[in-house]
Design brief:
Radius of gyration: 17 Å
Structural class: alpha+beta
CATH class: Mainly Alpha
Shape: globular
Strand order of the largest sheet: 2-1-4-3
Order of helices and strands: EEHHHHHHHHHHHEEH
Helix content: 40-55%
Number of helices: 12
Largest sheet: 4 strands, antiparallel
CATH topology: Glycosyltransferase
Number of strands: 4
CATH architecture: Alpha/alpha barrel
Strand content: 5-15%
Number of domains: 1
């Protein structure tokens, strides 16, 4: 175990602490999303760095976020969302991050991962995009909230990058939505250019654009070769490099409600990213 690990990194009931602010809130929060981000940042070293008991508790916390009715995952453990939070459905981001983390740790099988991806993420794709709007959202890419219906939904590039990582790891690159999500992310980065306001608009559920850098890097590492040129473009951009550095600071903003009314900061995520040199 890392002797320099701050106490904030010790999970409570299996989940690492984050801090949610905005909309009158300023409180600690324990959710599967932040926990999955800690484990993703630590990668193969997670068990060694955290210690077996802490690592196992974190994985148990992720499993508690799984919806037994659908196989998908939610932000908080089922039945344990905070009183202030709305009753949200399963979402593609949590399903991708938690499912892939549990698979990498041997807690779920490849068959389970593939079945989950097809029944959840792949089954919920954008049937329309809001108009008027920017040119990069793609019909057929993946929704954030996994609700059925044809009404326009918010397109989020970071969510789609995480979904692509799941599909590549599960050897499902030929499924519907994969090509559209790849094209959407590449088009979005090209459209943003060097404009910070445009870049910040690409991921409505991520107030910090640097989270998109990290998600696209993880997608390529998982096998999404279609985004290799996009990763290189972001890495060669002073703007995107600056975004990425902010996402690796001590207490990064790791996610938010749509367009940032609520924001989650997480010291454990910052710690994990710094000790692994992400």
């Amino acid at each position: 175990m890392d002797a320099g690990r701050p106490s904030a990194v010790t999970p409570s009931h299996g989940l690492f602490v984050s801090r949610v602010t905005g909309g009158g809130l300023d409180t600690d929060d324990f959710n599967g999303f932040a926990t999955a981000q800690v484990l993703r940042a630590l990668g193969r070293s997670a068990r060694e760095v955290l210690g077996a008991a802490c690592h196992d508790a974190a994985l148990d916390g992720l499993l508690a976020c799984r919806n037994p009715a659908t196989g998908g995952f939610r932000f908080w453990p089922v039945g344990q969302r905070p009183a202030w939070a709305p009753d949200l459905p399963d979402d593609a981001d949590d399903t991708a991050l938690m499912g892939l983390t549990l698979y990498a740790a041997g807690r779920i099988s490849l068959a389970d991962l593939r079945r989950t991806a097809c029944r959840t993420v792949v089954s919920h794709r954008l049937a329309a995009t809001p108009q008027p709007g920017p040119p990069w959202p793609r019909v057929g890419a993946f929704k954030t909230w996994m609700r059925h219906g044809v009404a326009p939904a918010i397109a989020d590039c970071t969510v789609n990058a995480n979904a692509l990582a799941l599909l590549a790891a599960a050897d499902l690159r030929a499924v519907p939505g994969y090509a559209q999500a790849c094209a959407m992310i590449a088009d979005a980065v090209a459209w943003a250019g060097t404009n910070e306001a445009r870049a910040a608009s690409l991921s409505p559920f991520y107030p910090e654009p640097g989270e998109m850098n990290l998600a696209v890097e993880c997608a390529v590492a998982a096998g999404v070769q279609e985004l290799r040129a996009t990763v290189m473009k972001m890495g060669n951009s002073t703007m995107w490099r600056g975004f990425r550095q902010r996402s690796c600071r001590e207490n990064p903003v790791i996610c938010g409600s749509a367009y940032g009314l609520l924001r989650w900061n997480c010291k454990p995520v910052g710690w994990a990213r710094r000790i692994t040199g992400i």
